[in-house]
Each structure stands twice: as C-alpha cells, then as structure tokens.
C-alpha cells in the first residue's frame, strides 16, 4: 500500500485520503497511490459510495513543481483521472484549501464535489504557459458552460467556493471545518436520495447550443490584450474542441494542444520566472533561520508620490504607519492623495467604504519626529538629494529607538554615504519601491556595506508581508534596475539621433512584449527628472556632463511628459495615449542638422539588439561585481519592476536562450562600430561565451 495515499472504510463509504505534505501535490508517488487506493476501494464489497479527500491544509493544489517542465513518469495524470472517471461507484471529492490545476481536474472527474466555504478552486496552468492537460478544458465547460469556463481557464484566476457553487463546479458548500465530514454526509445523501451519478463527460446540457461566434469573439479580445502569448490562444482552441467534438476526441485535442504548449519557449520563460520569484526570496548567505526584527509599526518620511504609495502598502497589509512631512500643507496634500487613490479603487467596486476608512485609519499623519520613537521601521522617501537625506538620517539616529530599521527609498544615491550620517550604519538599508508604489510588485532591497544580516533578512520578510516580490541587491549607482535602464535609455536616445523615430523605438520594445516603450515610459515618469540632474551637472561645470540632447531640448520647452500634456509625445486632454508629434519630429530634425548627422533608416532588429544587449552587458557587470547574487535576481527585477515580458524569462534568461556567444559577438561588434564604455564587453560575458556557458550556470 502507498504511504502517501490511504484507503479506509467509514460505514459504507470508502475513503481515499491523499497525505503528502505540504500541499498534496500530484507527484509520481501520489499518482501511483491514487490508482492503488482506487483499486482497493472498487474491490471493497462493503463500500458503495467513495470519497476522495486530502489530509493537511489543502486538497491537491496541483502538479509537483519538482516535475515542472520534465516529461512525467507513468502513470501520468490523465490516465489516473480516466480511472476515477470510469469508476462504477460514485465518487465525492471533499475539497478544502485550494483545489488547483491537476487537483481540480481530478475533482472534476469525480461524480460530485463538496467544498468548504473557505476553499478556492482554479486552473492556473495558463500562468505557466500551459493549459489544463488532464481533461480540465473538456470537463469544466460541461459543468459551467463555455463562457465561464473560458474565463477561468484563460485568466488562470481561482474562484471562491461560493462562486463555484453558483457556477455549478461544486454540488454543495459546507460551513463546517471538515471537508471529509461534509463529503461523508453528502455520500449518505447519494445513498438516501439515490442521486444520479452521471460522469461529467456525459453531461452535455451546458454546452449544447453554445454560440459558435463566442470563440471568434474571445480570440479577437485576446489578439488585442495578449497577442504575443501562446497558451491562452491554445486554451480557446481546447474549449472549442469541448463543444464541437465528442468527449474522447476533445481529450485527444486537449493533449495535442497541451504538448504544443510544453514545447513553446514561452513555457520555459514563464516557468523560469515562477522559480526565479521563489528563489529570489532565498538570499545566498542569509540562511533561512536568520533572526528577524519585529516590525509592528512603520513610519514613512515624505508624503509625495512615493511616500503616499509606500504608506498605502503597509495600510493595505493592516500595519499601522505614520506619515511625516515638514509642512502641514504638504502633509494634507499627501494624505488627500492617498484618500483619492483609495476612493478611486472603491468606485471600481474593489474596496468597500468601510475598508477605505479602515485603511485611512491606519495611516497617521504627523509633523513631529518625536512621534517616531516607537517605530520599528522608518522608510525615507523625500527629494532625491544627499544633503537632505543625510540630515534626515541624523535626526532619525537621534529620535528612533535602538534596533529600529532605517531605510531609504533612494533610486540612485549611495546608501553607505547616507548611513554615515548615523551612529548605526548596521541598521541602515535601502528599500527601493517602484512607482506607483502601491501597485508595482517589485521591492528592490539594497544592502549597504555595513547592513546587519537581520536587517537584510527583515526587509525581505517585510516585502513578503506587504505582497511584494523582493530581491536583495548591493549598492551601486541605480542599483540593478535603474542601472540597466539607464543604459537602455541612452541607447534609445542615440538610435533616434541616428535616424529612428521615438515611436519606432517604442514599437520595437512593445512588440517584444514590454507594456510600454522607453520614451512613453519617460513621459510617464517625467523627462524633467533626468534633465534637471544633467542641468545641475552642466551648471556645476562637471567636465563629464553630457551636452543637452534632443530630450533635454524638449524639457527646456516645459514639455515634461504626461503631467504637462506633452513630452516626447503629445497627449489629448485627459488621455494617456502617446501620440506622435510633428513638432517633436521637427525639433529632432533640427537637432540632427545642428550636429551634422545625416539620418539613416535604422532597422528594427538593430533597435532591439542595441536596446537589449546593452542591458545584458550591464547585467553581466552587475553579476561580476556581486551587486546581484544570481542572474535570476536580475530577471526578477526586470520582470516585476519594468515589465520585461515574463514569458521571455527576464533579460539574462532571454540572453541565455539566444546563446551568449551570439550576444557577446554582437556587443563586440557594437563596441567596434559605435564605441562607448557601455559596449565594452563585460569580462564575464566574454568568459561565458568562450566556455559555452550560460548566466544560469553561475
Ligand atoms: P516627491 O517630490 O513626489 O515627494 C517628496 C516629498 O518629500 C514631498 O512631499 C516633500 O514635501 C517631502 N519632503 C522634502 N523634504 C522633506 C523633509 N526634510 N522632511 C520630510 N519631508 C520632506 O518625490 P518622489 O517621487 O516621491 O521621490 C521620493 C524619493 O523616492 C526620491 O529619493 C526618489 O529618488 C525615490 N523614488 C522615486 C520614484 C519615482 O518614480 N517617483 C521611484 C523610486 C524611488
């Protein structure tokens, strides 16, 4: 008998229990055990109804992630599921926790499903570039109709047990705390009321009469929303097969489509992204048992764009947060901004009025540093100015209790220098949020030279608590994300100098899969930020300060981007859609003429190579310097902070798939033809290319 799946009888009900902590994943042992237990149950003459249940905290929550991306060993899940489907004895699935992926597919092959109210059910395969390949795309539409099945399968989002009951995925909802007891009671009903045990595969009433136009409509929607993604389109094909083909043929079609997804490079990218996110949380050199400092109350200094958003992150997680400004007016403005933000969310129906008030209630505005004496964590988010930041950290050093974590949200400044303003550099750390801070998933935590282990471990844990994907990196100009972005930005400007248009550069990047291009992003953040920095350097007589480029000339005219209604693009009033502007074209043409540049047609592939290879080369330097510990950390920063398409796995994974020899040779060629330190091949890139290795091998 299997040691992870047991069979036992309770009265006349045969109970199959999966017990494979932590999440009863459907690995090889569980699949084998399920078949053995089912055989025992079918052979047990005393059992007339069966229950499929799971021990521990959840029903089967999906495939075993250790088998992801590998061919699975027999018995494969579709075969196991076929045996449950063919059972002559009715089977009741007892669902608690989460029934996800293969777990839900197995439950769909049972005759009845009972779930606790707290349970959630879903088919998240699409998020890993796959589709439900064990009958899910064929059985779910038979239970809930094609429209709702498409919704669930294409989004990959789980639904609550209550929603599942309403849709018809489950047959009963139970308010108790034992799914097994609920299923045993249901088994008694099956007996007492002679409930007809019709296999899902035989139910056709919900799919009969499906409008064939539905599929064209969904495909058109996808073509707009996710044109580059492979698996959502295959999900539509599979559900269409469910309504147009007999069950067995539909299953075959689902299998073919599933295998096509398995072969897709997008699946490899998405699975890399999935594991990279999990791995990023495990920092080399910070063992799992590193002690954490308790963080119960937080303070944020500065209630501007970032400070307000950061305060919301904590309020959203139920953590009280003080918000400090120097002037009442700025404080009022900041708090009003936060309220406006919450109210907009409430208007969309995503928060209740009571929730808005509860969250606002957790944010306490103050002008007095004395209020910070009990804060466990302080995050500074004032102007990007070293002198101001140092002054604030000196004050924090005076007022904060011993052991309080003193964090800065700086994008570029040297955290080690900021730490010198205190007598406790071990407590100083960077917590770099991305704008809008309450929305963007990435938290780039920055460890200074003297930051203590428990401080680094705590900010990683805090990131998790507030729902961020956290990465730990080291100190350098721009850290990982902005340092690489800076290189891409400079290359994008140079490409326009040479003859490309801003919209051509942006289109190459959005066609690649970025949600927005370099220049549209500049307009969103405000092109005045970089211009002011360069202006200051020029005014200070910095010999390395660059001459004003065409972007600076736009900023000089007050065209700062979206906030002024015009920047590199123009914007219709109230719209965020970037529109090409003839005035900008003229300004660029004049700029080129002034520099004696004869514009040339720049091919799209050159734009892509120059914008991305320059980042990969910089990423290699970042790895070499130990600023990021692993290539996957760089990938996570770019996927969650800058919208690098997850299905391409991040810049370093993407480069690995192209082959580092190819990337290196292109970088070398650009160095020879274009010059510039940014194109000097990183020694690490050169070495890996020579050795035929990948960043992922490091
Ligand atoms: P902002 O100008 O919107 O806000 C700064 C706020 O700090 C203002 O409300 C100002 O009144 C307040 N302030 C200034 N001096 C202060 C002081 N001595 N004490 C208390 N409050 C003070 O700026 P922002 O965009 O929120 O940027 C803040 C920090 O976050 C900067 O270090 C910036 O580099 C960093 N950052 C910004 C972004 C972004 O996209 N805006 C992204 C990541 C990090």
Features of this protein?
698 residues, alpha/beta, 2-enoyl-CoA Hydratase, Chain A, domain 1, Rossmann fold, N-(1-d-carboxylethyl)-l-norvaline Dehydrogenase, domain 2, 3 domains, 8-stranded mixed β-sheet, 6-stranded mixed β-sheet, 28 helices, 17 strands, 11% strand, binds nicotinamide-adenine-dinucleotide
Tell me what the structure shows.
The chain folds into three domains: 5-263, 2-enoyl-CoA Hydratase, Chain A, domain 1 (Alpha-Beta Complex), CATH 3.90.226.10; 298-473, NAD(P)-binding Rossmann-like Domain (Rossmann fold); 481-518 and 532-558 and 587-697, Orthogonal Bundle (N-(1-d-carboxylethyl)-l-norvaline Dehydrogenase, domain 2). The mean pLDDT is 96. It has 28 helices and 17 strands. Strand 2, helix 1 (28-43) and strand 3 form a beta-alpha-beta unit. The relative contact order is 0.06. The strands form three sheets. It has an eight-stranded mixed beta sheet, with helices on both faces. A six-stranded mixed beta sheet has the order 1-2-3-4-6-9, sandwiched between helices. It has 698 residues and is an alpha/beta fold. Helix content is 49%, strand content 11%. The longest helix is centred in the last third of the chain and has 21 residues, at 604-624. The site of nicotinamide-adenine-dinucleotide has 25 residues, from helix 12, helix 13 and helix 15.
Short description, anyone?
With 698 residues, this protein is of the alpha/beta class. Helices cover 49% and strands 11% of the residues.
Query: Major sheet, described briefly?
Result: 8 strands, mixed
Tally of domains: 3
Rg value:
29 Å
- Overall 3D shape: globular
What ions, cofactors and ligands are bound?
A: nicotinamide-adenine-dinucleotide
Rounded to the nearest angstrom, the distance between the terminal CA atoms is 42 Å
Query: What is the top-level CATH class of the largest domain?
Result: Alpha Beta
Going across the biggest sheet, name each strand in turn: 12-11-10-13-14-15-16-17
Number of DSSP-assigned strands: 17
Number of discrete helical segments: 28
Flag low-confidence runs.
none
Counting copies of identical and different chains, the oligomeric state is single chain
Class from secondary-structure proportions: alpha/beta
CATH topology of the largest domain: 2-enoyl-CoA Hydratase, Chain A, domain 1
According to CATH, the homologous superfamily of the largest domain is 2-enoyl-CoA Hydratase, Chain A, domain 1
Q: Overall mean pLDDT score?
A: 96
Percentage of helical residues?
40-55%
| Portion in beta strands | 5-15%
Q: Which architecture of the largest domain per CATH?
A: Alpha-Beta Complex
């Amino acid at each position: 008998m299997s040691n992870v799946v047991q069979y036992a009888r309770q009265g006349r009900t045969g109970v199959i229990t999966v017990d494979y902590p932590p999440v009863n994943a459907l690995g090889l042992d569980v699949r084998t055990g399920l078949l053995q237990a089912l055989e025992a149950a079918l052979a047990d003459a005393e059992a007339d109804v069966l229950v499929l249940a799971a021990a521990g905290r959840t029903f089967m929550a999906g495939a075993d992630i250790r088998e992801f991306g590998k061919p699975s060993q027999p018995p494969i899940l579709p075969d196991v599921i076929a045996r449950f489907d063919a059972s002559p004895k009715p089977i009741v699935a007892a669902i608690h926790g989460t029934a996800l992926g293969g777990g839900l597919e197995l439950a769909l092959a049972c005759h009845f499903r009972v779930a606790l109210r707290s349970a959630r059910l879903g088919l998240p395969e699409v998020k890993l570039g796959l589709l439900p390949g064990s009958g899910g795309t064929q059985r779910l539409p038979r239970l809930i109709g094609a429209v709702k099945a498409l919704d669930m399968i294409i989004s990959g989002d789980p639904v609550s047990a209550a929603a599942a009951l309403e849709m018809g995925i489950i047959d009963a909802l139970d308010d108790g705390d034992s799914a097994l007891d609920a299923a045993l009671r249901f088994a008694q009903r099956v007996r007492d009321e002679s409930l007809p045990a019709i296999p899902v595969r035989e139910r056709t009433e919900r799919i009969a009469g499906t409008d064939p136009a539905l599929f064209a409509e969904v495909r058109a929607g996808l073509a707009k929303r996710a044109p580059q993604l492979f698996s959502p389109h295959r999900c539509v094909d599979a559900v269409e097969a469910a309504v147009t083909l007999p069950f067995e043929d539909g299953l075959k079609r689902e299998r073919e489509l599933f295998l096509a997804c398995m072969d897709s490079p997008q699946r490899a990218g998405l699975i890399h992204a999935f594991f990279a996110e999990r791995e990023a949380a495990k920092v080399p050199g910070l063992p799992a048992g590193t002690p954490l400092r308790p963080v119960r109350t937080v303070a944020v200094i500065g209630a501007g764009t970032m400070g307000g958003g950061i305060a919301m992150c904590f309020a959203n997680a139920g953590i009280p947060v003080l918000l400090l400004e120097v002037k009442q007016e700025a404080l009022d403005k900041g708090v009003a901004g936060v309220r406006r933000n919450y109210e907009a969310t409430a208007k969309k129906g995503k928060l209740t009025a009571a929730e808005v008030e509860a969250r606002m209630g957790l944010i306490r505005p103050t002008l007095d540093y004395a209020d910070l004496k009990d804060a466990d964590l302080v995050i500074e988010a004032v102007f990007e100015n070293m002198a101001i930041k140092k002054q604030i950290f000196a004050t924090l050093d005076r007022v904060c209790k011993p052991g309080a974590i003193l964090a800065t949200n700086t994008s570029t400044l040297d955290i080690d220098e900021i730490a010198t303003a205190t007598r406790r550099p071990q407590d100083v750390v960077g917590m770099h949020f991305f704008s809008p801070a309450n929305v963007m998933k990435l938290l780039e935590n920055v460890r200074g030279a003297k930051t203590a282990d428990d401080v680094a471990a705590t900010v990683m844990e805090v990131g998790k608590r507030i729902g961020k994907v956290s990465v730990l990196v080291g100190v350098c100009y721009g850290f990982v994300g902005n340092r690489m972005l800076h290189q891409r930005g400079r290359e994008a400007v140079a490409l326009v100098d040479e003859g490309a248009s801003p919209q051509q550069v942006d289109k190459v990047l959005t066609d690649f899969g970025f949600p927005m291009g370099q220049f549209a992003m500049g307009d969103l953040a405000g092109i005045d930020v970089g211009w002011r920095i360069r202006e200051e350097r020029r005014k200070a007589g910095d010999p390395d300060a660059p001459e004003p480029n065409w972007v600076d000339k736009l900023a000089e005219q007050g065209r700062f981007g979206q906030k002024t209604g015009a920047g590199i693009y123009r914007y219709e009033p109230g719209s965020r859609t970037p529109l090409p502007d003839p005035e900008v074209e003229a300004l660029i043409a004049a700029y080129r003429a002034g520099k004696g540049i004869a514009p040339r047609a720049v091919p799209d592939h050159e734009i892509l190579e120059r914008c991305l290879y320059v980042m990969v080369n910089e990423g290699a330097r970042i790895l070499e310097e130990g600023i990021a510990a692993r290539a996957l950390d760089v990938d996570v920063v770019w996927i969650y902070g800058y919208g690098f398409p997850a299905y391409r796995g991040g810049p370093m994974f993407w480069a690995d798939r192209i082959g580092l020899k190819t990337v290196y040779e292109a970088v070398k060629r650009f160095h020879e033809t274009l010059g510039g330190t940014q194109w000097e091949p990183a020694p690490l890139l050169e070495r890996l290319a020579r050795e035929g290795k990948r960043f992922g091998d490091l």
